[in-house]
Design goal:
Blueprint: H1 6-30, E1 46-52, H2 59-67, E2 76-83, H3 89-99, E3 103-108, H4 113-121, E4 128-131, E5 136-138, H5 142-146, E6 155-164, H6 170-191, E7 203-206, H7 207-212, H8 223-233, E8 237-248, H9 254-274, H10 285-326, H11 331-336, H12 349-372, H13 383-411
Parallel strand pairs: 1-2, 1-4, 2-3, 6-8
Antiparallel strand pairs: 4-7, 5-8, 6-7
Helix pairs in contact: 1-10, 6-12, 6-13, 8-9, 9-13, 10-13
């Protein structure tokens, strides 16, 4: 009689799901795509919206990075929305307003990031709008490199390559690798029209589309993700670029990273529930059949794998404890008679092969991702330790976040706005 353990069933399901998605993305990667661009004879007016809540540490540098854009000043309007900050954010911006005629400050009571953006949106008549988190920074040619991708009216948003600014510790260097690899996956998503989030750091929108969709959802804690889903729902396109860059400050502690990811994944979960009519809907192509289901399926698979691993570890400890109890915990005798009698043939070939192939694929993706955005793997040094953390520790961390998010999404109805990238 053949006995099948629960963990084996779980791993079989995970392997099947992973294989299914990997084959899909591999086919997407192999598909050739021509990149179209538009030449602007006359550069269009652009407004940059910067919502800020208690951002005194970074707001000045953020604004200066926009002021230094290589773009005609008479066609660039910068609007900072002070969302009821309790620190010196207001005073810092007011001093900059005195020195720059194209910089505007809006003060309001704390209403959240989406509310701040919508209040500014009402005052905009420019052809394009960019949003910029108050702890993110653009370089001189970012805007000029984004605009050419608006080559037809179906394109609602164009995204820059997001990079980590000056990583200081292992956690931040790990996030640098994560952001770089995420650019690779966004490239795959773009090729199949499956991008599901327009991040706060300098996503560029067509104003007419944004107003047609009535701006940002003020009841959603991840307004950028929910808006991207609505853009897809209304059959517009979102493009990812690699020659336009924006830098952001990452969380520097585990606690800060935890709260950031909790907000991201909880918001994604709730947005999927809100737009559940897109799930497996043939009218939305790959976005309905692949992207939307994966937002829910992959986190749950991660949770199942984590719990299965935890259960296996618990069982191993319990068995070891039982064995020791049978010999009255005479550990010294065991150590004296310990012999190394292990052979390579004792390893489970299938499991070992899957692990080695997964590691190899991860390394190839990491190298390809860095090449995609012209980034050197060794640029900041100490990359190997960060890469190992990203490959082996970070997935376990995310599984814990997913478990908390699942509980929170079901039982917690009090949502708070954590500003993107806030260091806690």
């Amino acid at each position: 009689m053949v006995s099948i353990y629960f963990s084996e069933v779980v791993l079989a399901i995970v392997y099947f799901a992973a294989l299914y998605y990997n084959v899909f993305w591999l086919l997407t990667l192999l598909e050739k795509k021509e990149i179209s661009k538009k030449h602007w004879k006359i550069l269009p007016p652009v407004s940059v919206l910067i919502p800020a809540y208690n951002e005194e540490d970074s707001i000045k540098e953020t604004i200066k990075s926009v002021l230094n854009l290589d773009y005609p000043k008479d066609k660039l309007k910068i609007i900072v929305i002070n969302d009821g900050s309790k620190d010196n954010t207001k005073e810092i911006v007011e001093n900059l307003v005195k020195q720059n005629s194209n910089l505007i400050l809006i003060n309001q009571k704390n209403g959240g990031k989406a509310n701040a953006l919508n209040n500014a949106l009402k005052q905009i008549d420019s052809e394009f709008i960019a949003t910029l988190d108050a702890d993110s920074f653009v370089i001189k040619d970012t805007l000029k490199n984004l605009l050419p991708y608006f080559y037809d009216e179906e394109i609602a948003a164009v995204l820059p390559s997001m990079k980590i600014k000056d990583p200081k510790n292992v956690l931040q260097r790990m996030q640098r690798i994560e952001y770089t690899i995420n650019t690779f996956f966004r490239m795959l998503n773009e090729r199949s029209n499956c991008i599901h989030v327009t991040p706060g750091p300098f996503s560029l929108y067509r104003t007419s589309v944004l107003k047609k969709l009535k701006g940002f959802d003020e009841n959603c804690i991840t307004e950028d993700l929910e808006l991207a889903v609505r853009i897809q729902k209304n059959n517009y396109k979102i493009l990812q670029t690699y020659d336009a860059e924006v830098y952001t400050l990452p969380p520097k502690t585990i606690k800060g990273l935890f709260y950031q990811r909790k907000r991201w994944y909880k918001g994604g979960f709730l947005a999927c529930l809100k737009h559940k009519d897109l799930m497996f809907n043939k009218d939305y192509g790959d976005f309905g059949y692949m992207r939307m289901p994966s937002i829910l399926i992959l986190p749950f698979l991660s949770i199942i794998m984590f719990l299965t691993l935890a259960n296996d570890i618990r069982s191993s400890i319990f068995r070891a404890f039982n064995h020791l109890s049978m010999i009255d915990f005479d550990i010294i005798t065991i150590l004296k008679n310990l012999e190394f009698n292990y052979h390579l043939l004792d390893l489970k070939f299938v499991n070992v092969s899957i692990v080695l192939i997964s590691i190899l694929i991860s390394i190839v993706i990491a190298i390809y991702s860095h090449k995609l955005i012209n980034e050197k793997i060794s640029k900041y040094g100490k990359t190997v330790k960060s890469l190992l953390y990203y490959m082996f520790i970070h997935p376990l961390f995310l599984a814990v976040v997913f478990i908390v998010v699942t509980y929170s999404a079901i039982f917690d109805k009090n949502y708070k706005w954590y500003s993107a990238g806030k260091r806690k």
